[in-house]
Amino acid sequence: MAEPLFTPEEQKKFDAGIAEIISHYPPDRKSAGMLPALRVLQEIKGWLPPEGLRLVAKSLEVTPERAYEVASFYVMYHLKKPGKYVIDVCTNLSCSLWGAEKMLAYLEEKLGLKAGEANEKFTLRETECLASCGTAPCLQINEDHHESLTRAKLDAILAKLS
Amino acid sequence: MTATAKTIDPIISAAWGKPQSWTLDSYKKRGGYEGLKKALEMQPAAIIDEVKKSNLRGRGGAGFPTGLKWSFVPKDSPKPKYLAVNGDESEPGTFKDRYILEDDPHMMLEGIAIASYALGVHTCYVYLRGEFKFPAERCQAAIDEAYKAGIFGKKMLGKDFELNCYLVRGAGAYICGEETALLESLEGKKGWPRLKPPFPAVVGLFGSPTVVNNVETLASVPHVFTGGSDWYAKLGTDKSGGTRLVCLSGSVNRPGVYEVSMFTTLAELIYDDKFGRGMPAGRKVKAVIPGGSSAPVLGADELDVAMEFEALKVKQTMAGSGGVIVMDDSTCMVRSLWRVARFYAEESCGQCTPCREGTPWQTRLLRKIEEGRGEPGDIEMLSNVASSIAPYPPIGLGNTICALGDAAALPTHSFLMRYKDEFEAHIREHRCPFGDKPWGSFGDWS
């Protein structure tokens, strides 16, 4: 037997999450909960394993293909296990005008990763505008937002990641 | 610059930065939910008329009159009606809704309550872009407070009117800011825009009549009722009432979100002490994008224009989502356009061929020119590719289901119209004339 996807505690969290989500939609529209349901799964497992996608699909009464279609459309869902820290660096116009390209180059050198690459600890990605253009440059680490970044500030943030 | 702008007291941003401004307590102390109380004493049709008279126009990009949009919802539909709040703020250069959600979410919630009561909506979904973790936390806390205070839930301030409000986070897709893609996403699907008509007001979420309004639009609604529609309309121009938030970024001394009058010009926004405080030392403006990265760019001699829908339309550009991006005279226009083009290539949903194929094609051509590999004919090709997605001018001739096609082509057309010599120089010199410093005064990071 393969190991179950969830520990009992995770299973509880998943079931409660799905029940809450479904209650937000009309009874015949369970499938509308796809985005929040995938988020629940990702919050528990750190990514979207295939058997998890099947469970989400089953809970929302759709096919697994449908869950995969949605999961592969949106960039915040991880279909592969990412590094412990996912660093999304905005390099769009306003951020580039405040040094984002140079900041990304610095991160690439410091982490030994090119944008788009990952190791066990870090996934480094270029991302699109994070709606923080007045406090550029900015990035997100596991969805936590950091703005008005200088080298010193970034070093201090990275130093805290164990 | 002289302060010729009609000065206004901020109404949307008045409490930003003040202690606990995001709480119900703070909002109520400032007269919060008084507009809702007034609206609840009116007939729903009269509420919609009041919003029409206020000349409030949508703040999400298209500038459609809000009251008119509300009036398209059929009164006699047997189906439930929905309100969907567009908080997918993703247009590069735009970061105003983030501040409303973080610093004064109840202002938007009051607008939601008024709109729902007027439209007979009993379920509202607030759709926020997935990256808005902190704004979503603040917004959810405010929704919880509103339930506890008897604003949402079974009764609305004691009146027999049920409203449930749910927050939904997206998952990283610019296209979901397009209203029909947003509805698809709310239905649990990938964000592929729908053909219009039918418009969402008739066939929207779950096939039911649905109004989709931007965060700032809804945050503006309470003021129409506290101050009255006459007062609100008179703050603005004949066709556009109220104040608006503009987001200033790029090569300027003090970037940020500023609440301005509809008469404030781009030049005032950039140079005035109340706003941008001018250009970095020794630098001049080269280019300004006035309404988010999809809005056609303006040159340094075109800044004496009010940041208002009609005035910018005359210039063949748009007020859009209020994202003003400034580039100084040491910024490379090819590099800048390449960066913008990459965004649209990345965010094209892939549904329509001109956009799916055209946006990466633009990007490849721009990279080639920027890296010094450009050849004679590349500029013409670039222009042709952009025209195949959407010809210009005027705005709105796109060959695609949604406006992302136009959004992707307009920057190309307008950069080529105004800065063609820079593109030619790249090809002639087989290099970027700006070398390794293409990003202007603040482009060096330290």
From TrEMBL, chain A:
Record's cofactor remark: Binds 1 [2Fe-2S] cluster.
Keywords: 2Fe-2S, Iron, Iron-sulfur, Metal-binding
Superkingdom, taxonomy of origin: Bacteria
Cofactor: [2Fe-2S] cluster
GO molecular-function term, one example from the UniProt record: 2 iron, 2 sulfur cluster binding
InterPro entries referenced in this protein's UniProt entry, alphabetically: NuoE-like (IPR002023), NuoE_dom (IPR042128), NuoE_N (IPR041921), Thioredoxin-like_sf (IPR036249)
Signal sequence segment: none
Binding site for [2Fe-2S] cluster: C90, C95, C129, C133
Protein family: Belongs to the complex I 24 kDa subunit family.
PANTHER family with a match to the protein in the record: NADH DEHYDROGENASE [UBIQUINONE] FLAVOPROTEIN 2, MITOCHONDRIAL (PTHR10371:SF3), NADH DEHYDROGENASE UBIQUINONE FLAVOPROTEIN 2, MITOCHONDRIAL (PTHR10371)
Protein name: NAD(P)H-dependent oxidoreductase subunit E
Organism from which the protein derives: Myxococcus llanfairpwllgwyngyllgogerychwyrndrobwllllantysiliogogogochensis
Automatic annotation (TrEMBL), chain B:
Coiled coil: none
An MF annotation (GO) of this entry: FMN binding
PROSITE patterns: COMPLEX1_51K_1, COMPLEX1_51K_2
Keywords: 4Fe-4S, Flavoprotein, FMN, Iron, Iron-sulfur, Metal-binding, NAD, Oxidoreductase, Quinone, Translocase
Protein's UniProt keywords contain Iron: yes
GO biological processes: cellular respiration
Catalytic activity, reaction form: a quinone + NADH + 5 H(+)(in) = a quinol + NAD(+) + 4 H(+)(out)
Position of the signal peptide: none
NADH-ubiquinone oxidoreductase 51kDa subunit iron-sulphur binding domain location: 334-379
Named cofactor requirement(s): [4Fe-4S] cluster; FMN
Short name of any one Pfam family annotated for the protein: Complex1_51K
Gene3D superfamilies hit by this protein: 3.10.20.600, 6.10.250.1450, NADH-ubiquinone oxidoreductase 51kDa subunit, NADH-ubiquinone oxidoreductase 51kDa subunit, iron-sulphur binding domain
Enzyme class: translocase
Enzyme Commission number(s) from the entry: 7.1.1.-
InterPro entries in the record: ComplexI_51kDa_subunit, NADH-UbQ_OxRdtase_51kDa_CS, NADH-UbQ_OxRdtase_suF, Nuo51_FMN-bd, Nuo51_FMN-bd_sf, Nuop51_4Fe4S-bd, Nuop51_4Fe4S-bd_sf, Soluble_ligand-bd
NCBIfam families per the UniProt record, alphabetical: nuoF_fam (TIGR01959), PRK13596.1 (NF010120)
Job description of the protein: NDH-1 shuttles electrons from NADH, via FMN and iron-sulfur (Fe-S) centers, to quinones in the respiratory chain.
Family: Belongs to the complex I 51 kDa subunit family.
Name listed for the protein in its UniProt record: NADH-quinone oxidoreductase subunit F
Organism listed in the record: Myxococcus llanfairpwllgwyngyllgogerychwyrndrobwllllantysiliogogogochensis
